[in-house]
């Protein structure tokens, strides 16, 4: 994330440096469309073409070259100021991102681990499929928790397994014929969905609505529904003694350390907290 520089200006400088939108977008780790749109918007605002489009690439126009020559020294100075500020300021608050497919119960457990280890965090939720600029994302967040496997350059990663349980009230034949709804605590997740569809092919799968959690528990207690949930979620629920809690599957979550400054004492405490508290 560039604090002092607009995205449009950043993309203009990238295209000037690389000579094409294709190479510039690869360097910035985004698709060509938003970069081309940003250049076009900048040209519309300025009232002149910055580049001459050709088969050979993006050739700077006379006006574009003049603008670049005036901006380049200031641009580099702003980048240097930002780099120095990041190195000099040791933020006490760590920015932590959770991918959308992680259950809320897991997020709350991990947040509690941070708190128990005296680590101040600011939490955000992200849809990894809709991040336009992953470089800016990495510069903003310190830590990312994701169920999806990612290839992130220069990022330390640590895997954690957590168990998922099936909570139900089977009938006398030990089947699930009376169950109509399978409640779960996940966004779309292909591994969990595949097992749900395989084990309960004709049942309705409904994501838990926390505003209606009492009714959901009543459905489970009465045998009309079943619940797929993590241990941390079950620990806060009141389940009747005659309800069966059985192992459903084990899933993996990965923690990525995105910035060097997160290494050291705080992260050691974090990892110890994750292992010691065994919330997975």
Automatic annotation (TrEMBL):
HTH lysR-type domain: which residues?
Answer: 1-61
Alphabetized InterPro entries for the sequence: LysR_HTH_N (IPR000847), WH-like_DNA-bd_sf (IPR036388), WH_DNA-bd_sf (IPR036390)
Example GO molecular function: DNA binding
Keyword Transcription in annotation: yes
What keywords tag this UniProt record? Answer: DNA-binding, Transcription, Transcription regulation
Record bears the keyword Transcription regulation: yes
One annotated Gene Ontology cellular component of this protein: protein-DNA complex
UniProt lists the family membership as follows:
Belongs to the LysR transcriptional regulatory family.
Name this protein carries in UniProt? HTH lysR-type domain-containing protein
State the organism of origin: Citrobacter amalonaticus
């Amino acid at each position: 994330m560039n604090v002092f520089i607009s995205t449009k200006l950043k993309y203009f400088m990238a295209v000037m440096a690389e000579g094409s939108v294709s190479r510039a977008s690869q360097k910035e780790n985004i698709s060509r469309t938003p970069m081309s749109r940003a250049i076009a918007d900048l040209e519309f605002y300025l009232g002149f073409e910055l580049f001459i489009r050709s088969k050979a690439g993006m050739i700077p126009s006379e006006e574009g070259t003049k603008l670049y020559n005036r901006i380049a020294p200031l641009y580099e100075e702003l980048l240097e100021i930002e780099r120095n500020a990041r190195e000099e300021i040791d933020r006490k608050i760590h920015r932590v991102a959770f991918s959308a497919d992680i259950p809320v119960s897991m997020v709350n457990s991990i947040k509690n681990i941070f708190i128990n280890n005296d680590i101040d965090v600011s939490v955000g939720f992200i849809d990894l499929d809709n991040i336009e600029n992953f470089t800016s994302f990495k510069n903003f967040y310190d830590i990312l928790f994701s169920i999806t496997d990612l290839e992130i350059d220069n990022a330390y990663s640590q895997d954690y397994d957590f168990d998922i349980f099936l909570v139900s009230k089977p009938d006398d034949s030990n089947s699930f014929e009376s169950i109509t709804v399978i409640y779960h605590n996940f966004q779309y997740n292909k591994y969990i969905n595949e097992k749900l569809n395989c084990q309960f092919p004709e049942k309705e799968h409904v994501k838990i609505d926390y505003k209606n959690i009492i009714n959901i528990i009543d459905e489970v207690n009465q045998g009309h529904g079943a619940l797929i949930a993590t241990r941390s979620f079950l620990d806060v629920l009141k389940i009747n003694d005659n309800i069966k809690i059985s192992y459903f599957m084990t899933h993996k979550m990965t923690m990525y350390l995105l910035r060097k400054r997160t290494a050291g004492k705080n992260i050691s405490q974090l990892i110890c907290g994750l292992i010691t508290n065994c919330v997975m």
